[in-house]
């Protein structure tokens, strides 16, 4: 098998005749248009190991200077491209952190701090959360945000009624935890949970996964009739975030302008100024890695989702790679295992599948240690709250895997006894970060065939379709290859997957795991949460419903116009825009 990493080196080293998107370095923020075919500079293909090519560091403009020009960012996905958090799924943070104001935000180290809500208090039992709205917040249309907008945002984002369609499973999981939501004072919203909930703030932050979980929405624009107001809102949405959307071409591009009245600045009581230091931004959807890199090389993009395999292509044109550490985790989810008739209901099957994955070969064949690490467990990466060194993928042990598989009653290669396992489908999609996910699936399938004799098959479609089939329980008795956003506090995933038997995305109905999850969620004191979550994750690791496949460090290709940028760790998609400094 030819390494995709080597394949891309050769492909991108050849002259590329590609359609790329025009991105003017300064001026008005009109949506990009198609340019005539452009040829990327030729670079001789090589099979030598990738080498870091040193490039001179550009000099940044002073921190208080706003560049009047434009930054062009090319990404591999827009998600469902619905600007209301109740419906958004997939890569929504590609644009969500630009457009929207969030109740809570994160620090560069991963913890949560106030944002649109200037403060919050939690009762001793973790059931009651009091959020205080920051004064003076403006929407992009000039309206001032009120506590009624906050309550409306909560209710519209979490309601499971048909208005006009039900919310995503993640939203309805949160709804089932809540007893009531009410305005309890000037600029104060109180959320009362049925049980202790340590993640009340985390769920409402911009550091929570890829979806726009809880944004501050303009109530006046979204009143009944819902179908009409939501359709109008999605054409050109209004938020309270750092950028105002000026135009969009669905499934192609979005254009933004700096919002000078963005609330996260000292003028409104925020500890720092998180407004961008440039005037315009174009966000362009370009699924193909080669096209994004060609645009960067041609000077038609400033920041692109990249990959380690194209490092020489980026640095050879004067750019460089900047990494967003622990941006995504990868895991195999065994689906429907709580049902006795499903093969993975036997823990020996789950253990055998886990031990029969040659993770080292996958990493060495497809990735580098810089861009991909076989560390952590499932949704818990080394920066996550609750992580410890014991949470790690198991070593490759095909002998033990075959022994367990036989004990579970299944036939293995070289054995004449046991029942046939039958077809077993790995369902996934071609993610932008990390790349080569179809190849990961194929290598796992080949190893399962070789070591366990399983008729392992690979089905690669798109993320939305896989999620729809998962929600409809059509993937039971098979596998979902999950590529999902890493996060500082992943406890909400544990709750959704292991402590909500009504959640269509659950992985277990084990009451013991539900109790363990509930106990961990009851611990709200910051000094106790690390130990509580670590105990839970070690317990979940034993059950092996998640088969960990490591995490990626997303490389961003940046042009020499970008003098500095410090993207967040444990945060996928374009982020920390206010740290970008353009060159003089």
Kindly describe this structure.
This protein is of the alpha+beta class. Among the domains are: 102-225, Dipeptide-binding Protein, Domain 1 (Dipeptide-binding Protein, domain 1), CATH 3.90.76.10; 326-553, Dipeptide-binding Protein, Domain 3 (Dipeptide-binding Protein, domain 3), CATH 3.10.105. Helices cover 26% and strands 21% of the residues. The chain has 15 helices and 21 strands. The chain has helices spanning 4-13, 93-99, 147-158, 169-177, 226-235, 289-297, 311-315, 347-355, 359-366, 398-407, 437-452, 463-471, 491-498, 511-521, 526-543, and strands at residues 17-18, 38-39, 67-75, 104-106, 112-114, 117-122, 128-133, 178-185, 188-193, 243-249, 253-258, 278-285, 303-305, 320-334, 372-373, 423-429, 455-461, 479-485, 546-558, 562-564, 581-582. Strands 3, 10, 11, 12, 13, 14, 15, 16, 17, 18 and 19 form an eleven-stranded mixed beta sheet that branches. Strands 6-7-9-8 form a four-stranded antiparallel beta sheet. The chain has a two-stranded antiparallel ribbon with strand order 1-2. A hairpin with a 5-residue loop joins β4 and β5 (112-114). α8 runs antiparallel to α10, α13 (491-498) runs antiparallel to α14 and α14 runs antiparallel to α15. It is globular, with a radius of gyration of 24 Å. The two termini are 46 Å apart. Mean pLDDT is 88; it is low at 1-55.
């Amino acid at each position: 098998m030819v390494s995709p990493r080597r394949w891309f080196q050769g492909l991108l080293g050849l002259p590329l005749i590609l359609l790329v998107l025009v991105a003017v370095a300064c001026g008005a923020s009109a949506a990009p248009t198609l340019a005539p075919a452009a040829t990327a500079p030729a670079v001789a293909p090589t099979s030598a190991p990738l080498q870091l090519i040193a490039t001179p560091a550009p000099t940044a403009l002073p921190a208080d200077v706003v560049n009047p020009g434009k930054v062009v960012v090319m990404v591999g996905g827009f998600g469902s491209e619905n600007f209301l958090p109740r419906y958004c799924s997939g890569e929504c943070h590609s644009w969500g952190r630009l457009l929207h104001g969030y109740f809570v935000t994160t620090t560069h180290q991963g913890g949560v701090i106030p944002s649109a809500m200037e403060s919050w208090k939690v009762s001793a039992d973790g059931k009651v959360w009091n959020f205080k709205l920051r004064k003076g917040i403006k929407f992009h249309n000039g309206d001032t945000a009120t506590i009624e907008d906050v309550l409306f945002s909560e209710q519209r984002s979490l309601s499971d009624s048909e208005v006009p369609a039900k919310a995503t499973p993640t939203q309805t999981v949160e709804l089932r935890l809540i007893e009531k939501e009410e305005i309890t004072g000037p600029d104060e919203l109180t959320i009362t949970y049925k049980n202790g909930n340590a993640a009340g703030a985390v769920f409402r932050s911009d550091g929570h996964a890829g979806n726009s979980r809880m944004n501050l929405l303009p109530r006046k624009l979204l009143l009944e009739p819902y179908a009409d107001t939501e359709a109008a809102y999605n054409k050109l949405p209004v938020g309270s975030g750092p950028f105002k959307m000026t135009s969009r071409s669905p499934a192609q591009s979005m254009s933004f302008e700096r919002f000078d009245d963005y609330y996260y600045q000292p003028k409104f009581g925020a500890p720092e100024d998180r407004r961008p230091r440039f005037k315009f931004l174009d966000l362009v959807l370009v699924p193909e890695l080669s096209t994004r890199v060609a645009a960067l090389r041609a000077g038609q993009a400033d920041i692109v989702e990249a990959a380690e395999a194209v490092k020489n292509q980026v640095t050879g044109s004067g750019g460089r790679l900047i990494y967003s550490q622990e941006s995504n985790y990868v895991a195999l989810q065994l689906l429907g295992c709580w049902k006795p008739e499903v093969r993975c209901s036997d823990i020996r099957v789950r253990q055998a599948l886990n031990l029969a994955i040659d993770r080292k070969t996958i990493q060495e064949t497809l990735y580098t240690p810089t861009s991909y690490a076989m560390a952590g467990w499932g949704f818990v990466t080394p920066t996550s709250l609750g992580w410890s060194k014991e949470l790690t993928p198991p070593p490759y042990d095909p002998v033990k895997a075959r022994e367990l598989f036989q004990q579970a009653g299944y036939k293995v290669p070289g054995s004449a006894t046991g029942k046939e396992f039958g077809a077993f489908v790995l369902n996934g999609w071609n993610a932008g970060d990390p790349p080569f996910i179809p190849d990961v699936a194929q290598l796992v399938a080949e190893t399962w065939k070789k070591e366990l004799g399983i008729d392992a098959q690979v089905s690669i479609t798109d993320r939305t379709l896989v999620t729809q089939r998962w929600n409809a329980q059509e993937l039971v008795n098979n596998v979902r290859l999950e590529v999902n956003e890493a996060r500082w506090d992943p406890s909400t995933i544990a709750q959704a997957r292991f402590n909500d038997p009504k959640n269509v995305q659950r992985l277990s109905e084990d009451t013991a795991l539900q109790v363990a999850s509930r106990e961990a969620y009851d611990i709200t004191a910051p000094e106790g949460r690390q130990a509580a979550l670590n105990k839970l994750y070690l317990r979940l690791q034993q059950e092996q419903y998640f088969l960990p496949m490591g995490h990626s460090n997303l490389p961003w290709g940046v042009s020499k116009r970008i003098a500095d940028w410090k993207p967040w760790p444990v945060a996928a998609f374009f982020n920390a825009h206010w740290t970008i400094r353009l060159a003089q």
